[in-house]
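Title: Prediction job returns without error message
Component: structure pipeline
Severity: low
Priority: P3
Assignee: unassigned

Description:
Job completed but the reporter wants confirmation the result is attached to the right record. Sequence as submitted:
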Amino acid sequence: MKKTYVIDTNVLIQAPYAIECFEDNDLVIPLVVLEELDGLKKSEGEKGSNARAAVRKLEEYRQKGNLLQGVKLAEGGSLRIEKNYVDVELPKDLPDDKPDNRILKVCKGLRDSYKRKQVILVSKDIVLRLKAELIGVKAEDFETEQISDDNARYTGRAEVFVPEELVKKFKKKDLLIEEVYLSDEEGNKSVPKLYQNEFVILHPDCTSKKTLLGRVSDDKIIPLAYKKNHPYGITPRNVGQYFLQEALMTDAKKAPLVIVKGMAGTAKTFYSLVVGLEKVYNNPTQEYRRILICRPNAQFDDDIGFLPGEEKEKIAPLMRPIIDNLEQIIDTDDKKRYEDETELSDKINEIFERGIIRTEALNYIRGRSIVKTYLIIDEAQNMTPNQVKGIITSAGKDTKIVLLGDPNQIDKPFLDERTNGLSYASEYMKDSPLCWQITLSAEECERSDLAMEAVKRF
């Protein structure tokens, strides 16, 4: 049976193509949604861009027919603008002048009119969905961009057993995936399902020898190429960092996209900067021209235009964590690092003044072709799927993109663990030969003893 979906403004702002995602069902857009889109279309950043894209999409359908009467969609459903139901009564606690409540009026009016047809509100706003349920209207999130819970847990690494007689072979030669195995509680063996570029911990099956580390390449597991490297004088402290170093050190032709997930304190940003400085500042291979760092602006509106000062001054508060990491990288002596704060600050300023590291607002990346750049996107869990797509498709020749973040620490409204850009990219780029992924575990927290204790307890 066909359903009628009422679309909230925030759905179109996050996914302008959403109109085409409801199969053969009927879509209703309340007039107040048009008013909100009109108010947002001149905004800068992704919000304004998506509002304009949604308006253009509606214009395409307007040219095909009368949107007040309904226009046929490609999948068999229909799309129409609803200007009625302004006199529908809501509970007194829901004032008529709020846009959300005007949307609820349409939902309630349609529900009462279509007694044989299910009316469903689609909104990214949890509070609006709750209010809809309170007045007896079914409400759902926009799920097209959601990934499953299982897919959200992809870590980019696996543990397998390797026959004892093949341990020495692996140190000199690759292993076929068929030569390693998994074992269940009853001792039954099976060939593991491994993804392209997935990192692998190999356990010898008959002894307690040290584990071996490798990576999936086609149908083989190959040893790590950069295990003995010390970028910018730093040595990996745990298995996760060995895998992370491998992904970051590999050149942009083989690994143009690296996705790193993990909670605070696991050295995601630190290690990404370490390898970037090794590649650009020490410049052994001349792979990249510069390091470019961006962070989503989750604390303010996507548009930073209202903040005082020039771009560098506007985004400075967002980049403070980058400076904190650089202080530790530039001077590795924990005891003497802060004896001369001025000297330390001068060293960091020199890196920026020489253009080795540049920082930019995320919304200024759109539409550019970034060439031969080591691009770090920090706190990428605060990006939308549309934003992350825009970033990845901006990669020019010899550019390496590093997405960092913790999907459990989201500050952006309407995003969650399954709908944020970091998780979205992780799922859709999984098994790509051009994407390397690693999730750093809680046990790999290196920030401090207190940070590790908090990770274990919270």
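Comment from assignee: result matches the submitted record. The chain has a mean pLDDT of 88.
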